[in-house]
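We both want to read discrete structure tokens more fluently, so let's practise on a single case. Would you write everything just below, so we can both look at the same thing?
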Amino acid sequence: MSNILKRKKSKNDIKVLELPNNNIDMESYVLNNKEKIYDSIISNIETAIKKRLGAVEVFRFQETNFVVVINRKDFKENLQNAFDFSLENEHFEICAKAKNIMNKLEKISFISKYKINPKTPNVKTETPAEKTNKTRNSNTRKKRGDRQ
């Protein structure tokens, strides 16, 4: 089984696991290497967050062009799955790593919701006096319109 697990570094410093391309070997590999798989997923998501990527490649299948990619919107769910598995199987280092990255992801999400876009033009706010004058002018136009 050790010849099945290969880690490759891509140009983004992401470690992509290469999985067997037939179902029997893959099922066996996954059952025997869940800890390594989850650790790899967590590391790749962490790198994607640091590099502000919208998605991250996590697996390739041997002798094929098929890959498995996790989109940014699915990072939290995958981290939670890794956390749950690690907690259940008492892999506390992986647990802590997943939880730490989930917290970072939540902070980033919170900040991005309230961050002001610097490209948005400044909107002039009216003072109470300007609002009052605007209302008066509007009422005056209505009265003049009634006389016609």
